[in-house]
Specification:
Number of strands: 10
Pfam families: Methyltransf_16
Number of helices: 11
CATH superfamily of the largest domain: Vaccinia Virus protein VP39
Helix content: 25-40%
Oligomer: single chain
Radius of gyration: 22 Å
Shape: elongated
Protein name: FAM86 N-terminal domain-containing protein
Structural class: alpha/beta
Bound molecules: S-adenosylmethionine
Strand content: 15-25%
Number of domains: 2
Strand order of the largest sheet: 5-6-4-3-7-8-10-9
């Protein structure tokens, strides 16, 4: 079936929105792919004898509209990205295929990234820019596993409906924030061990689910100021182990609390039905305590069928083999119930990293042996 010029334009604008509000640097493959799409779009317009100038004007005004009027413009894109994208647009619209010159700009440390997840809803994160490790943690940027687990759970929403859910190593909170929009959970607990990460989750929760009217319609200038000074601390370092943050989101009672896999008190663990984790299997030394915690949570649960779902991007097969061994040593049985990968245009998290496959573990206490279900892959 022939795709109309209008539909081609919609695809370009949608990809543009994804890359622009996901704060993907213009050096990334996503922008090159988008550039190729635009060239094909103009070639198709010429082939079908459309007025080329009118076609360019139409695309130009649509892309400019995104930058100036899209609903997400209340979360400011950094001046550097905005300027780079303006250069990119000029090159594309001028039909210039030469490389982009270097643009010197001070990038603010904190920026907004908005991800489209869950039926065209956006999750906005105020987080550190691009760096994979910042302030001694990997938790201030989002990882592919969070996207993979969100996308997978979107197909199996009933697994979480009315369930008590805990997430281990939540990072900036992309997974939980996506699930809180539409999964009807009874409760959701974000956890992490890092003070900055915990405060980042709280800030991101307030950003996505403003709880009182005073924070609801923040002035963009006020938000911009927040990005310049960085997220504020809701819980100070000295109280991070003893104080947790609570917010009711719809029917779901939501909490953010400190939970260190290496040092926790079993008697203070909550009773949950489902345990989630994404991209938390990477440091071999952490695998025994992490598996110990999963075992403790599953044993403590009073649910009919307590289950953990852990999404792991396949960066090191040796590490994943160690994880498999540790699970068995801790009396846990597992099945890999889904596996998939994203193309550079589909995933925008950690866009400087090449895109490995992600696998999803379903883990239960041995005795409740999980069988892969038909249709889950
Ligand atoms: C690679 S990041 C993944 C973050 C998030 N789950 C995602 O997919 O975007 C790993 C996370 O595990 C957390 N983490 C590492 N060691 C931990 C520990 N001992 N206890 C609790 N969290 C830990 C880090 O702070 C970080 O947020």
């Amino acid at each position: 079936m022939e795709i109309s010029l209008e539909d081609r334009c919609i695809v370009i604008v949608r990809s543009f929105i994804t890359a622009y509000f996901g704060h993907v640097p213009v050096q990334s493959p996503i922008w090159n792919n988008l550039h190729d799409l635009c060239i094909k779009y103009f070639a198709y317009a010429a082939h079908t004898q459309h007025d080329l100038k009118a076609t360019r004007d139409c695309l130009s005004s649509q892309l400019t509209d995104v930058v100036e009027h899209h609903e997400l413009t209340r979360f400011p894109v950094s001046p550097k990205l905005k300027s780079e994208v303006a250069h990119w647009m000029k090159r594309v619209l001028d039909g210039d295929t030469t490389s982009n010159g270097n643009i010197e700009f001070e990038e603010p440390e904190y920026i907004f990234k908005s991800f489209e997840r869950n039926h065209l809803e956006y999750v906005t994160l105020l987080e550190e820019n691009r760096n994979i490790i910042g302030h001694g943690t990997t938790g201030l940027t989002s990882w592919q596993g969070a996207m993979f687990l969100t996308d997978w759970l979107t197909k199996f929403t009933s697994f979480l409906t009315n369930q008590r859910v805990i997430e281990l190593g939540s990072g900036s909170g992309l997974l939980g924030l996506s699930l809180l929009r539409s999964f009807g959970m009874e409760s959701f607990i974000f956890t992490d061990c890092h003070v900055k990460v915990i405060n980042a989750i709280i800030n991101n929760l307030q950003l996505n689910f403003p709880s009182d009217s005073s924070t609801k319609d923040l002035d963009p200038a006020e938000l911009l100021e927040q990005t310049q000074i960085g997220p504020h601390y809701v819980i100070p370092e000295e109280k991070i182990r003893s104080v947790s943050y609570h917010q009711r989101i719809g029917h779901c009672s939501t909490a953010v609390q400190h939970l260190d896999w290496l040092k926790y008190d079993v008697s203070s663990l909550p009773k949950v039905d489902v345990i989630l984790g994404s991209d938390i299997v990477y440091e071999r030394a952490f695998l025994p305590p992490l598996c110990g915690l999963i075992q403790d949570l599953l044993k403590l649960s009073d649910a009919m069928d307590p289950t953990a779902y852990i999404a792991c991007t396949e960066r090191s097969f040796t590490t994943l083999d160690c994880f498999n061994d540790e699970l068995k040593k801790h009396g846990l049985s597992y099945a890999i119930i889904s596996k998939g990968s994203y193309s550079p245009t589909e995933t925008i998290v950690n866009s400087d990293v090449s895109h490995q496959a992600t696998r999803l573990y379903r883990i239960k206490l041995t005795g409740n042996l999980p069988q892969p279900e038909r249709g889950l892959f």
